[in-house]
Amino acid sequence: MHPVLQQILNAFEHQGAAQYGQEAVTQLQHALQCAQLAKDSGASNQLIVAALLHDIGHILETSPIPTSCEQNLDDKHEAIGYHFLLQHFGAAVADPVRLHVLAKRYLCTKNSAYEAKLSPTSRKSYYDQGGQMSVTEVTEFEREPYCQAALQLRIWDDTAKDPDAMTQSIVDFLPYLESAVERVGGED
Ligand SMILES: [Fe+2]
């Protein structure tokens, strides 16, 4: 197995059972539900991997998830995940992850009903992360090559909080991870 895939499996083994912030699912349940929603939507291999690993910044233990809404929830985990994923999986995986926080701000800015549907924790982090976007921020986000992928990922992220949802296991998603790692390896 590629060493980075073993690192990812180990990280989920150590951190996956932890609660996903204040939500009713674990980190692993949340990641698998997000990946399953991507797969069931017919997303590309790389976007399925982005969905599975979008919170890897928390799971690598370099940025533990805040445990209380009293804390500032803007922990920049998307930047930690981005740098890790860019190195091993390339921009098609890393960029939607980098943009998934901005994508929430974009969706809430464009549609107040989206904000109303957020969980209390996600609404708190929305404000900690900057809240409503300015016109300039909206334009800059729309210019991002992976803006549509990031918006799709965000909607799955906000849906993947169902304690009763059935998903495939992380081992079932290994072929997607292997293919995405090999693709970047072949380009180098
Ligand atoms: Fe998430």
Strand content: under 5%
Give the low-pLDDT segments: none
Largest sheet: none
CATH architecture annotation: Orthogonal Bundle
> What would you call the quaternary organization?
single chain
Termini distance?
19 Å
Question: Care to count the β-strands?
Answer: 0
* CATH homolog superfamily: Hypothetical protein af1432
Bound molecules: fe (ii) ion
Rough shape? Answer: globular
Structural class: mainly alpha
What is the radius of gyration? 16 Å
- Overall pLDDT metric: 90
How many domains? The number is: 1
SSE ordering? HHHHHHHHHHHH
CATH class (first level) name? Mainly Alpha
The CATH topology label is Hypothetical protein af1432
Helix content: 55-70%
Explain this structure.
The protein has 188 residues and is an all-alpha fold. The chain has a single domain, classed as Hypothetical protein af1432, CATH 1.10.3210. Helix content is 65%, strand content 0%. The chain contains twelve helices and no strands. Helix 7 crosses helix 11. The protein is globular. The mean pLDDT is 90. The structure holds fe (ii) ion.
Question: What's a concise summary of this model?
Answer:
This protein has helices spanning 3-15, 27-40, 45-52, 56-59, 77-89, 91-98, 100-110, 112-117, 120-128, 135-143, 147-159, 174-187. With 188 residues, it is mostly helical.
